[in-house]
Amino acid sequence: xxxxxxxxxxxxxxxxxxxxxxxxxxxxxxxxxxxxxxxxxxxxxxxxxxxxxxxxxxxxxxxxxxxxxxxxxxxxxxxxxxxxxxxxxxxxxxxxxxxxxxxxxxxxxxxxxxxxxxxxxxxxxxxxxxxxxxxxxxxxxxxxxxxxxxxxxxxxxxxxxxxxxxxxxxxxxxxxxxxxxxxxxxxxxxxxxxxxxxxxxxxxxxxxxxxxxxxxxxxxxxxxxxxxxxxxxxxxxxxxxxxxxxxxxxxxxxxxxxxxxxxxxxxxxxxxxxxxxxxxxxxxxxxxxxxxxxxxxxxxxxxxxxxxxxxxxxxxxxxxxxxxxxxxxxxxxxxxxx
Length: 338
Ligand SMILES: Cc1cc2nc3c(=O)[nH]c(=O)nc-3n(C[C@H](O)[C@H](O)[C@H](O)COP(=O)(O)OP(=O)(O)OC[C@H]3O[C@@H](n4cnc5c(N)ncnc54)[C@H](O)[C@@H]3O)c2cc1C
Hints:
By secondary structure, the chain is an alpha/beta fold. It contains eight helices and 18 strands. The strands form four sheets. Strands 4-3-6-1-2-5 form a six-stranded antiparallel sheet, covered by helices on one side. Strands 9-8-7-10-11 form a five-stranded parallel sheet, sandwiched between helices. A five-stranded mixed sheet has the order 13-12-18-14-16. Strand 1 (about 10-20) and strand 2 (about 20-30) form a beta hairpin. The longest helix is centred in the middle third of the chain and has 14 residues, at about 125-140. The radius of gyration is 21 Å and the shape is globular. Flavin-adenine dinucleotide binds near residues 84, 85, 86 and 234. Flavin-adenine dinucleotide binds near residues 60, 61, 82, 84 and 86.
């Protein structure tokens, strides 16, 4: 698969205050990188910065849409105690550069002739805004947005959403849910907000507990999983590993034109096993987001704990994210050289 797995330095052109704890970063894409950084609304980039002498890698979705002439923009909300989000909000200024991998992600608009209902929570509005702008500009679909926040001061893009709603000729409706006024949204409340739009496609992005409540609410309305598209910013707290091959004792790794048989410790990912054996496999985010550690499984079966980048076609063709892949069979042969 032809894919660019390199970090590219991008200059910050402008920093925009969006809310008390959130800033947008408009990035300069040099002409030579325009193709590399072409993206679909809803995708994200993985960024690398050196913070306190250590490299930190995190993903941020584009809040801009490539279909309306927007400049390439990511929007970052502070997470209390968080390393990258606070560093970007405090230290990253116009004229600085930050390293980024090419855009990735599958949380994108599916072509369909049905309404769109989006549930966003907090910073989860970022890819949702991008998708809404594209849907308004390139389709005639009806769109309903439910946007949950703790309180009014934290609402990101309030003015932009109002501008889009007012210009949509009635196609976009925006419902703000504020926990401070109405308590946390529950499944019944979510089901009520869906109303009769049960044939819609549903796009959901927000904190894990919010996404769980929305999924429950949609299930109450009989929404099929095939109508549901989600983007997870955090791994679910109880992400349990798939049943792992307790019988796997060693795996064969092809890398740098050599073949190594390495010991397998239960619980290790393929990447862990390669590193434990002193090999030097490529990796970066270690969260299943960036594809730097991608390799091909030539023999055997593996399962991924998380995968935010590879398409179903790629996984069917045998590609895996080795930072997320655990062996399920006795014999596994993995190839980093393909
Ligand atoms: C595909 C993808 C797209 C994303 N897009 C955006 C985006 O557009 N805008 C944005 O602001 N963030 C986005 N994120 C989240 C972002 O990547 C970071 O996880 C987040 O900024 C926290 O990183 P940090 O280094 O500041 O915190 P860390 O130092 O990693 O974490 C600090 C603490 O906060 C917890 N934590 C981590 N992430 C979150 C979170 N999102 N909410 C609450 N607690 C958390 C951790 O468990 C840890 O205890 C996205 C994540 C993914 C996977």
